[in-house]
Amino acid sequence: MVELIDLCKKAALAASRKKVDEYEVYMASSIHNEIEVFNGNVESLSFSDTKGIGLRVFKEKKMGYAYTSNMNEDEIDKCIEKAIENSRVTGPDENNYLPLAKDYNYPLQTAGRENLFSAKINELSTEDKINMAKQLEILAKKKDKRISGVSELIYDDSISEVAIINSNGFEDSYRTSSAFLYLGLISRSGEDVSTGDYFGFARCPQDIDIENIADKAAYRSVKLLGAKKIKSQTTDLLLDPFVAVQFLGIIAGISCADAVQKGKSLLAGKMGTRIFSKDFNIADDGTLENGMASRPFDSEGVPKGRTIVFEKGILKSYLYNTYTARKDKTLSTGNAARASYKSPPETGISNFYIEPSEKTVEEILSKTGRGFYVMDIIGLHSGTNPISGQISVGAKGIFIEKGEMAFPVKEVTIATDILSFCLNLDEVANDIKFMPASGYIGSSSMLVKDITVSGT
Amino acid sequence: MIEKKTAKKILDILKKSGGDFSEIFAQKRVSNNLRLEDRKIENSNSGFEIGCGLRLISKDSTFYAYVDSLEKEPLLNAAKVLSAAVSEKSKGSVLDLNERKSNYKIKVSSHPFNVGQQYKKEILDEMDQSARQYNSSIIQVTATISDMEEEVFIANSEGFFSIDSIVKVFTAVNVVAKKGNEIRTGYESLAKTKGYEIFSDKKPGDIAIEASRMAVTMLDAVNAPAGSMAAVIGNAFGGVIFHEACGHGLEADSIIKDASVFKGKIGKKIASSVVTAVDDCTLPFHWGSYSFDSEGFPSGKNVLIEEGVLKGYLSDYKSSIKMGMKQTGNGRRQSYKDIPVPRMSNTYIDKGKNTKDEIIKSVTKGVFAKEFAGGQVDPATGDFVFGISEGYLIENGKICEPIKGATLIGNGPDILMKIEAVGQDLDFAPGFCGKAGQSVSNEVGQPTILIGSITVGGTQV
Questions:
Q1: Quick one: pLDDT band at residue B90, thresholds 50, 70, 90?
Q2: What is the pLDDT of residue A96?
Q3: Closest chain B residue to A148, measured at CA
Q4: How many CB atoms within 10 Å of residue A354?
């Protein structure tokens, strides 16, 4: 088997023969398994072993990009030529050149790479993985007799490798493993239907707690049977971590320097000012131990680190890749990110999270006299405009009366805007959960004061 | 791409340990993408992808493998590995391959491979200038052009193969307008299954101006109302509600999983009698159109709802067998890396009797939702949410102030019954739809329609 870094070297050698000022070869490979189980049967099983290469070239401070999934030498050559052709139409920019060591905000780490990959993932056969998924279905259906079926049960794992070589002498690679289980349940009571889902992930399937997934998915599905609309009103919201991370995701997006520099972030021009009325800390940590988005370096080879974005409620830093950092005359925080080898690096989060407190969600609940415990939201993508800050999403959950869960609620919306959300964020509990987004986002349950709920 | 003889051999190997169906999906794709932002071309990107997906179905199970190659050896190897997933008593059969033809044929006059990146740059520059000249409050313009040329070869053990070539061009403009502390955005797109002749239908500048008009209009928006009221849904992209809240529930896989509110409702009245809805992948040049679906089945027109009565579901091969219904040509996939699933193509509510003016005039108090930012639905319950990106208050039959930060929330089956009027101004809008982790091109469409009562999620209680 050819090592990825060797393939990368071959492409780099080909690129070095071309008339370009600088080049970068980014390669990604992935061995991927996906299993879908339905009614005790394997609905589908998919496996693959694939590679791709993305070539970035700079000529006269103009960038060109091209990619291919074909590792044939001629094809790679064609791909480099295409990248050069593409560089001819892009706008020149003095900050457009490859990262240098002096652009790094954090030192290169050699430790911690062993945490990114678990060899245990190779110990399970496909049969074992199928059984694990089937086991989850059996467990879940036993949780409550109102559970009528599974809407989706997916097991997914992959072993991925990334290698980067650039003409500034950077040459490195790392390997990661991950396993993911997702369960969606449908429950019924008379004519009423309700759905709920949950998931688990780890570096290897053995570390996923399937009992917990079954429990949580069942609870989330059954709990909302018999839900009804409520009257439109302004009330306090207690957000489940599952929901809280989705709101935090909006804040993560507008913390990225490219959004700020392009006038697409409400955080533009607010450096050093108070955004949250309470003293919350929010960080992006690409070196977080056990963090699923932790990496030794970002997608242009810049070392990862821990960047405090909000300290005691005050905006302290944006998240930078090399290009945006130079524009702001600062250093790259190692936040260059790409969706795949098919695109050049932009900016993106790693493990982005709000620091938990020591309060339990029960303590927070008991002091919330009246409010709405939000268990799920839908339409966040379409109902939120991260640029204008408007948020209006569909929600379901349980109404809180006298500090206790009173009755289930559905078909209502919650509406606010990002900055009001930050100002009204009152409490963060101690039950932090991470959820995959473009990186991983972590939050505990949140209490947000005075939000409009729209119903009848 | 793949010789008939080789294809037959691969299909044979796939079924060597049994199985009901084997299939090859081979694809070559060349794509180009150009993005303008901050008044300059920021990204110019091209891609070459080749690959092949192999599928084996045995009873209710699908086994799938894909490789980044169209060469014989890796494909034969992958087929061998995949065939081991099944162990039945006897070998499966493969019929001799005959080419399947489609009635849907289009002619492309300006192929992307003949169009240089420089030409596309000029289009994007024109969009940037037109958007900014529209109004001084425009502070950012992002414009993209993507094109794609694709060759697809599909063959299966039922004895069919198909060859297809696909050309697509997509362009979109996003603008940001700012006045004081208020920031608003506007969006407009144009996308067709044809070449660069799309710009003879619509000028790049006009697309950009439409995006600017929307952002600038919304700068003066007032807070949206909260509560139940009448809603007039605009034509074209307004059809996204039907797509999300009803269309997905009519895809046969959700029926099989008992995850659809439309299960067992064929022949029953599920919508108000003014509603007729159709999925048609043969509308010439439309963004969701194709000659063959991703299983090599010829495209067609399928009536979903006729005068309020449910007529049919959208199926792929597997679901049609399972449900004992006809295959509708809606088995679609994002690429060779994906297993096809039932998907919509161009889905719309058909023309009705009323004019848009009549519909607006009939509303005493409500909202006019002209454009949406998209939406989401839970197909098992039919509950949906849509973000309104351009909306207005309606008072005493007149369109009044624009409103900001509003969504519509409701339940698909419930809303279908509450459609009180359907206009004559049927139009379409292109987009991308995500399902099972795969994104495919779709069009939504409808005339202006009136929903008697729906929850509007604003901040003004």
A1: confident
A2: 92
A3: B258
A4: 24
Interface of B with A in 4-63 (CB under 8 A): 34, 37-51, 59-63
Nearest CA in chain A to B61: A43
Could you say which residues from 314 to 343 on chain B have a Cβ atom under 8 Å away from some Cβ of chain A? 337, 339
| Distance in angstroms between the alpha carbons of the first and the last residue of chain B | 61
The pLDDT score that the predictor gives to residue A1 is: 55
Tens digits of residue pLDDT in B201-216:
899 999 999 999 999 9
Same domain, A209 and A243: no
DSSP SS3 for A379: coil
Q: Which residues of chain A have pLDDT under 70?
A: 1-2
Expressed as residue numbers, the domain containing A84 is 4-222
The answer on A272 and A189 residing in a single domain is no
The two tokens of residue A346 are: 């932009």
The yes/no answer to whether this complex scores an ipTM above 0.90 is no
Nearest to A256 by CA among A347, A391, A164: A347
Query: Does 3.30.2290.10 match the CATH number of domain B112-148+166-220?
Result: yes
Mean pLDDT of B280-292: 97
Q: pLDDT tens digit string along B138-172?
A: 999 999 999 999 999 999 999 999 999 999 999 99
| Contact with chain A for residue B364, Cβ under 8 A | no
Whether B407 sits inside 8 A of A91 (CB atoms) is: no
Q: Residue with structure tokens 């929901």?
A: A243
Residue ranges matching CATH 3.30.2290.10 in chain B? 4-99, 112-148+166-220
Q: Are A409 and A453 in contact (CB under 8 A)?
A: no
Mutate to test the interface with B, among A69, A70, A341, A343 (most CBs of B within 10 A): A69
Longest dimension (CA), chain A: 73
Order across the sheet with A351-354: list the strands.
A314-315, A306-311, A282-285, A351-354, A440-443, A433-436
